Amino acid sequence: MREDVSLATVAARAGVSVSTVSRIVNGQTRRASPATVARVRDAIEAVGYRPNPVGRALQRGQSQLVAMIAANLDNPAMATIASSTETALREAGYVMILCDTHDRAELQDEYLFAMRAQMVRGYVLVAAVPSPGLSELSTSGAPTVFVNRRNPSGSGPFVGIDDAAAGAAVADYFADLGRRVPAVVFPRLSSSASRDRVSGFLARLRERGWSDEAIVRADGEGRSHLQVGYDAGARIFDGRDRPDAILCVSDQIAYGVNRRALECGLKIPGDCELVSIDGTPLNKWVAPWLKSIEIPYAVYGAEIVSGLQLIWRGEPFGERLLPCKFG
């Protein structure tokens, strides 16, 4: 649409008032004759006028903007979630604003504060961290869906997987393979997702006959999962009992562990099997040696938007746990 095309342009071509065009554009046709409605619609098509959704939202006191605040867009999993959500929102008539907090609480609060000034209609929090602003958002009743990590400030609508079940599935896989020395690597700055994956893994190994002392645990410091895996790998592979099977709670942790294993002269998966929980499409290109629990991030967007629409209509939306599989 040309910048100079407006309601007035349509009105002049159709020979009616601007208010008549405005009513017809907004679906209020009862006050106009069928002939007038047809003439206005023909004029709209002829001049290429397109209604401004933001302007219409302002008139209704509603915004078409939805804020996604993600912890780390360097992570391919979060980038895939963002892409699928943007597509689903656009198809539903909304515009997504994307913010990256770099897993920092103070930056998360800056974005939450800024979004309140933007007439944001809803929030999508991907891997949120505890912060004062998040606590305030949670108590305000603003339409919010939490993704991957549950609300660290309390309860709230959630889209993700059964993380404990995913960890348990990896434990069964190692046990069925006959692996003897299992290990798990996770970030020291843990989240609900990491904790549940680790606890599900440990609980199932105990059920399968391992003692706590026989299960190797290693964490890594910092926000970079690549560095977490690399640092934790040093402690694992330098120990007396080297593991022959390792659960990495994310793909990027597995990349870091693999790098350390190669430096120690180990072969993956020959000397040690690595399994991650993520399974992004990038793995088949950069990590064909990595077996993963694949999370269907590409369909998260539709579930997130469906949840927001339920909330906007005042209907309940608790959680949506999506199926995942070995890949």
TrEMBL record:
Keywords assigned by UniProt, alphabetized: DNA-binding, Transcription, Transcription regulation
InterPro entries documented for this protein: Cro/C1-type_HTH (IPR001387), HTH_LacI (IPR000843), LacI/GalR-like_sensor (IPR046335), Lambda_DNA-bd_dom_sf (IPR010982), Peripla_BP_I (IPR028082)
Pfam family, one: Peripla_BP_3
Domain of life (superkingdom): Bacteria
GO MF: DNA-binding transcription factor activity; transcription cis-regulatory region binding
HTH cro/C1-type domain: residues covered: 6-50
Classification via SMART domains: HTH_LACI (SM00354)
Transmembrane spans: none
Domain HTH lacI-type: 5-60
PANTHER family the UniProt entry points to: HTH-TYPE TRANSCRIPTIONAL REGULATOR GALS (PTHR30146:SF109), LACI-RELATED TRANSCRIPTIONAL REPRESSOR (PTHR30146)
Name of this chain's protein: LacI family transcriptional regulator
Organism of origin: Bradyrhizobium cytisi
Species lineage: Bacteria, Pseudomonadati, Pseudomonadota, Alphaproteobacteria, Hyphomicrobiales
